[in-house]
Amino acid sequence: MTMPKTQEGTSLLPGNLHEPGDCRAISAVLSRVGDKWTVLVVSALGGGPKRFNELRKALGSISQRMLTLTLRALERDGLVTRTVFPTVPPRVDYELTRLGRSLLEPVNGLSAWARANRTAMEAARARFDANEPAK
Amino acid sequence: MTMPKTQEGTSLLPGNLHEPGDCRAISAVLSRVGDKWTVLVVSALGGGPKRFNELRKALGSISQRMLTLTLRALERDGLVTRTVFPTVPPRVDYELTRLGRSLLEPVNGLSAWARANRTAMEAARARFDANEPAK
């Protein structure tokens, strides 16, 4: 099947995408963002600071251990702060840093694309698999 | 450390993010987009159709096998078309579909974030690791 040439003759990302530094930058960020729980935690914190148990409730099926690991990785990357309030029992809030808030926009762009195009992707997969010769 | 409450009191993603369907959609898309080569191939095809060897050259360090696998997965997901021209030898073009082109925007948003904030993330990691008590 021949497709017409695309109208968008230029890449949104100019040639400098493929510099080694960019490759490393993208790998580093994808290793963080290419994780479902990271995306969901960052998104859940988009509404403001939350306590551990509030986050856990908001995320439904996440385990305590996975939420702990995800929050710790986000804290290490400078995307989330952990604040302990000297109450009894101590209250611990998690909150996006400025860097973390700046990640909301691309993360939400990806989430919106996912919601809008999941069905199209699934249909494409079914068509592709139906056309595959049996092995 | 106490952080001031964020100005952005509302999430960019309203409450419906955490519906099961959204979780699945995001997982499905991240399993595709959370892969460095997928992002780089989609981005490289943003400039228009390319032949296999053009892509390989554009991506520098990708192996023939990894490029083949990545393109096949993208074709399966309806993001890329593969067109064989009946020349001798046959010429094979890869091109983003309309769906694939729609993915360029969020992918480029993420890449731009990565380029802009890689240094900040690396610095945060170094600070965090320096403050960790030895084990």
The chain-level mean pLDDT of chain A equals 80
Radius of gyration of chain A: 20 Å
Number of helices of chain A: 5
- What does the oligomeric state look like here? homodimer
- Total beta strands of chain A: 3
| CA distance, first residue to last residue of chain A | 24 Å
Question: What does this molecule look like?
Answer:
- The structure is a homodimer of 135-residue chains.
- Chain A is mainly α and 135 residues long.
- Chain A has helices at 20-33, 36-44, 52-59, 64-76, 98-131, and strands spanning 50-51, 80-85, 91-96.
- The first copy, chain A, has a three-stranded antiparallel β-sheet.
- The longest helix of chain A has 34 residues, at 98-131.
- Chains A and B meet through helix 1, helix 2, strand 2 and helix 5 of A and helix 1, helix 2, strand 2 and helix 5 of B.
Brief account:
With 135 residues, chain A is mainly alpha-helical. The first copy, chain A, contains five helices and three strands. In chain A, strands 1-3-2 form a three-stranded antiparallel sheet.
Question: What labels would you give this structure?
Answer:
disordered N terminus, 135 residues, mainly alpha, homodimer, three-stranded antiparallel sheet, 58% helix
Topology:
The structure is a homodimer of 135-residue chains.
Chain A: H1 20-33, H2 36-44, E1 50-51, H3 52-59, H4 64-76, E2 80-85, E3 91-96, H5 98-131
Antiparallel strand pairs in A: 1-3, 2-3
